Amino acid sequence: MYIINKYVDWACVGGISILLYIGIWVADINLHDYNIALIALILASFINNPHFIASYGLLYVDERKKLFTSAYHFFSGIIIPALLIVTIIYALITKNIYTIGLLVNAMFFFVGFHYVRQVYGISLISLAKARIYLPQWIKYTLSISLIPAWLVSYLNGASAIFSNNTLVAPSYTFYSIPYTMPGLDPIFKNINTPLFFIAVAVWVMTVLYVMVRYKQIPVTFIIAFVSISLWHYPLFYNSGYLYLIPLFHSLQYLLIVGAVKRNQLQITLGWKKFVQYVFNISAFAYLFFYILPEGLDKYIPYDKAVFGSTLFVAVFLLFINIHHYFIDAAIWRKGSDIAKLV
């Protein structure tokens, strides 16, 4: 009936994010007054960063035998990291800041798709736990309805902005790496509002279909779709809340990983192994997000006039984020051994 249990499920699927948003709105709280960027960074050390490392364990440990037998696993586990490493090395050798900027663009392009696919997967898992199974056409429609949430998350940063009464491509900095977004016509961002209401209509019709046929609807199904709306759509935009969205996404992910590891415990492992697993992913997260990149920035000479002072922090984040999106596309495919353990 539940992924972990009814309390953990609703909290991690998005319940915490919804309650926090409501609290901010009712109390008219400005999260920036509480140095939300620093708080989010601290929380990332315990939640966000381990969720990335967990995906590496699932692919390279739990599903290692498929790396050379499955096309999806080979592409995600071998080809993609090789391409990323070659691209980064090329950029460093040639001092090509534009290439690093392209990786930043790729990260922001894929992240919204990654988020909505996770919500889609969470919604189907929630239904399956209640023995509710949607017809293929409804699943397809539900999946398509999430595309606007992906697009608006990208278009909010990629659309052209007015500068001196002229539309120009927006420029930002990712750590010390300057980059420019494509500067797409703002009209694409504007059409997402009507698309959002169409998407809501699809979600409501899905709920009604389930209620009529099965006489019940898992609350986590509804929470998942409400949360993705609060995270992405401009109607609910809050600049302080934005910092915490990766945390909420990571909680969803760790809920599923927790279910996988719990079921593995019942089959092959023990509780000591589970504690060791949590320690290991936390230690590796600290190693790859802090110790290694910060050490390389400090001790490896490179042109700081071109790349700034936190080059390796930036490229480690880019590599892990982009690779993570492709890892998930492989290990959570329908019928995968990992997915069966949820």
Gist of the model:
The protein is mainly alpha-helical and 342 residues long. Helix content is 72%, strand content 4%. It has 14 helices and four strands.
Q: Number of DSSP strands? A: 4
How far apart the termini lie comes to 12 Å
Main pleated sheet = 2 strands, antiparallel
**What would the average pLDDT be, to the nearest integer?**
91
- Count of helical regions: 14
Strand content: under 5%
The rough form would be described as globular
Strand order of the largest sheet: 1-2
- Overall number of domains: 1
Radius of gyration: 21 Å
Order of secondary-structure elements: HHHHHHHEEEEHHHHHHH
What structural category do the secondary elements indicate? mainly alpha
Q: Helical residue percent? A: over 70%
| Contiguous uncertain segments of 5+ residues | none
